[in-house]
Specification:
Elements: H1 2-20, H2 25-28, H3 31-48, H4 51-66, H5 72-92, H6 98-102, H7 114-118, H8 120-135, H9 140-188, H10 195-249, H11 254-263, H12 273-284
Helix pairs in contact: 3-9, 4-9, 5-10, 5-11, 5-12, 8-10, 9-10, 10-11, 11-12
Length: about 280
Amino acid sequence: MFTIIGSVIVIACVIGGFLLEHGNLAVLFQPVELLIIGGAAVGGFIIASPMKVIKAVMGGIVKMLSGKGYTKADYLESLTMLGEVFYKIRKEGLVSVEGDVDNPKESVIFTKYPTFFKNHHALDLVVDTLRTVMTTKIEPNELEALIDAELESHQEELTAPSKSVATVADSLPGLGIVAAVLGIVLTMGKISEPPDVLGKSIGAALVGTFLGVLLCYGFVGPMAKNMEHSASEELQYLSVLKMAIVAFVGGAAPQVAVEFGRRVVPAVDKPTFAEVEEALRRIKK
């Protein structure tokens, strides 16, 4: 939603300012210039990006338009889920969650928490970590290092779409100049025409530079930054899970381990101690 609102503000301010200065809106309508710039940008993006990055960018655009991010409710849900797992392990032993780990899609615990369950990265992180703890005698510090290595690798995957879109944004001013130069070349072929004809042709050529700069700094560049923030938010969510699990494996009580996770939740989305305590009290009952 905010992406659409921001785009409307950009267009309204730029076009509105032009009209307030009694500009001729028809001059800015140059579909061929947009075809040259947009087509070249998309083509360059396809050349530079493997298919998995292209798919990730498409997914990032859909997520950006939906405006869906992690909320306090999502973090509270994940902390409650971890608390339930920890309490079960503490009461019945690691073997009690073997079925959940081996077949998470049929897990009574995991399927109870839809936001967490639909996030396959988060689900894999929890399941793989529990499986490692069940099948090895890994030390807490080694487990933390193992998860950090996984998150570092995952970070590269998450930031690839934003880097690709940022590269496209950086190319747009140059492609705008390309469109402008082509317009000037066409204008030179009309050098014998009257001044009013030459003026319109030169104005149309300069629109190419205008479009390239506007698309870069008004739309595509901010899109890349939005995707970067989304990737950081995803990593923060996974870090909360990591912190709680490592604390529990290190010997912390379930409620204390969950508190370790709660403490690293971003302040704007952090559930209160009382909210987490109440959620854990409900699952204990």
